Amino acid sequence: MRKEATVIPAIEKLPRVSLGFYPTPITNAAHLSSRLEGPTFFIKREDLSGLALGGNKCRKLEFILAEAQRQGATAVISTASSQSNFCLQLAAAGRKLGMKPAFALIKGVHIETQGNLLLHNILGSDVEILEVADMSLLKGDFIQKKWDDMAAHLKAKGLRPFIMRHNIPDISAILGVVGWVNAADELDRQFTSLGISPDYVVLANGGGGTQAGLELGSRYLRTKWKVVGFSVLNSRAAAVQAVAEQANAVSDYLHLGVTVSADELEVYDDYIGKGYGIPTEAGIEAIRTLAQTEAIFIDPVYTSKAMSGVIDLVKRGRFKRTDTVVFVHTGGVAATFAYNKEVAR
Ligand SMILES: Cc1ncc(COP(=O)(O)O)c(C=O)c1O
């Protein structure tokens, strides 16, 4: 039975800045359903969240940047891969709130001034592309030293930098997940008002914070729907561990009294292909399928791999004709332009 209160009270009390347009729409994807001869599909258009070119990070940033403001920040620093959608959204949010954006980016597949790097150029972000391509360097001493240097540089200009770190127990990581606990509530209320009763909410999993928020929120609200993740970065074992760790840390932070165990999570790592940021044939096919059935563009790094997984699981019978599946379009479309050579036929 779903709890009485539909708004999660512990979240309502947290400081939040308004950056996006919520709730993001949910659209019926009937042509996709008939193309796949599969379940009833809906698409949660988180790509239409409104900040810059949209995506799942905007909800996270509404809580994270409220904390940065509370700390008096006038600049934001972060790190990810060169075409990171998170860093682009952070740059845009920072600009909206009067904060200078600065990034040290791991050398990803595309470092030309295209896609998100073009948008950074327009936003006037400070961007340093690091001569390393290893995503594991996003944790630990190497990146901490880099951040310290960047912070010192910004302080010398009279700015007060806020460093946005990705890992629990950092407050930014906690608050990012909070944004997606709230999204579970938003989704569930939308399902009620649309008169639908989905079985699954499916999405791409990168660092796992988005899935963690939905896992925690859906358990707290005791929803009928279950979450299914498609990893684009980590092995299944590492991905479920990361989701459980984040969900449990946020459950403690919000005093929700929910425990998420790694072995109850459904995450697939079969659709990553050669690695993070390297598009797959099936993913590119999925980009075309979504565009040609629903006129919706999905991205080459995250959502296309997740959708290729969904399509495969329909073929394998994991998702049945009688199921209702909601695909969360987490955004990232700007990267398509950097990946034009891979995506174009
Ligand atoms: C478009 C898109 N989808 C999904 C994700 C995955 O989000 P998370 O890191 O919370 O798993 C990201 C993260 O960078 C993203 O940019």
Polypeptide structure, described:
This protein has 345 residues and is an alpha/beta fold. It is built from 13 helices and ten strands. It has helices at residues 9-12, 30-36, 57-70, 85-96, 115-123, 141-156, 171-194, 209-220, 236-254, 281-294, 303-315, 335-338, 340-343; strands spanning 26-28, 40-44, 75-81, 100-106, 126-130, 161-163, 200-205, 226-231, 266-268, 324-328. It has a six-stranded mixed beta sheet. Strands 5-4-3-6 form a four-stranded parallel beta sheet. Helix 2 packs across helix 10 (281-294) and helix 7 (171-194) crosses helix 8. It is globular.
Task: Note the topology.
Layout: H1 9-12, E1 26-28, H2 30-36, E2 40-44, H3 57-70, E3 75-81, H4 85-96, E4 100-106, H5 115-123, E5 126-130, H6 141-156, E6 161-163, H7 171-194, E7 200-205, H8 209-220, E8 226-231, H9 236-254, E9 266-268, H10 281-294, H11 303-315, E10 324-328, H12 335-338, H13 340-343
Parallel strand pairs: 2-10, 3-4, 3-6, 4-5, 7-8, 7-10, 8-9
Antiparallel strand pairs: 1-2
Helix pairs in contact: 2-10, 3-4, 3-7, 4-5, 7-8, 7-9, 8-9, 10-11
Compact description:
The protein is α/β, with parallel strands linked by helices. It contains 13 helices and 10 strands.
